[in-house]
Amino acid sequence: MRLEKNTIDQHNTLLEQKHRKAFAYISNDIAQVEEIIGKLQKFQIAIPSWALGTGGTRFGRFSGGGEPGVLEQKIEDVGLLHALNRSSGAISLHIPWDIPKDAEKIKALATSYDLVFDAVNSNTFQDHPEQQHSYKFGSLHHADPRVRQQAINHNIEVIRYGKELGSKALTVWLADGSSFPGQLNFREAFQRTLSSLQEIYKHLPEDWKLLVEYKAFEPFFYSMTIGDWGQSLLLANKLGPKAYTLVDLGHHLPNANIEQIVSLLLMEQKLGGFHFNDSKYADDDLTAGSIKPYQLFLIFNELVEGLDHQEVDHATGLVWMIDASHNLKDPLVDLLQSVEAIKIAYAQALLVDRIALKQAQQDNDVALAQEILQAAYRTDVRPLLAEARLRSGAALDPVGLFRELKIREKLVEERGDNTVATGL
Ligand code: PSV
Ligand code: MN
Prior knowledge:
- Helix content is 49%, strand content 10%.
- It is of the alpha/beta class and 424 residues long.
- The strands form 4 sheets. Strands 6-7-9-11-12-13 form a 6-stranded parallel beta sheet.
- The longest helix has 23 residues, at 5-27.
- The radius of gyration is 22 Å and the shape is globular.
- Manganese (II) ion binds next to loops.
């Protein structure tokens, strides 16, 4: 299913008058409104190929129907999202959940929806039918060199797929760890991981990034071999200039100050990218901004400050991606909501009066610093986002239009009730 331009135009015509009023009201107060809209139009957030179906918990999975059963349908779904918001112009593949068998055809299909391929992701956290050795006790950190070699070869293969599609980054997330004290020698496990990653790094094209993702716990509960940003940064520094740390918002211990982590990684020029989601307790993979929107704003506040300090382009400097799981809501609606929440936080961060904040910090004026941040956070920037969408040819109300057009119902009609998407 493809959304035609005139369907979107018709929808926008009906809402335009109301939007114009809201936009005029907010733009009066913002001197740099045109600059902000330009930045919002440029800012794209990649959609993971594994989050287009219904997610599950360890207790069950309740499919909503019409899930994309094959990669072509997943691309079609991201195409729908991008037509609705013009902010999701990239797709990130997880191998072997989504193998592009005919790369040229897949690329052409993506191009027809105006999509590019973001980071490719390897998977050595599950056993795959054709593989010889099990990852039960880890992959790149494994005590057995044959398992390590198998995992290294898999990553090299993923790079090959990515090259065919035009990706520019490999994301490595390892489920390597231990659940009981004594199970692992921490130092040796780390060193084995490093030397495995060094092998993979040798195969990384010159203009690629290697993104090292960390996670505090799960699936292991005593230690994770890449458990926090310190361990990831250590690896990235030892690997070389093409290696970076990737921050997944759900991968920290409760109450971690993620915005401070972001600030320091940026300072070290080692922040490579993001996996957005939200959580209440652990790696809950909920819609971005649904539980802790202020935290999301504070993270973007550091991102904007740090990227501007280094004169790095916001849209292209880092790899921006959603990594969530949708087990209650329609996955496409959920993804639209996440993209909107991310861009709201970004727009609010662009509104922060940086000069005044610097002065307040210099003067130790704590109350004023808080006022400045919260003035930006409490601004309703939704008309700015809507204006950016309007100018880019997207819908003024993407979720509203999705419902109005009964897109899910049509996908169920086309694909059936019980298709199952690969992924989480
Ligand atoms: C692991 O929890 C993770 O965040 C990694 O990014 C994986 O690639 C993804 O989720 C899918 O399992
Ligand atoms: Mn992730």
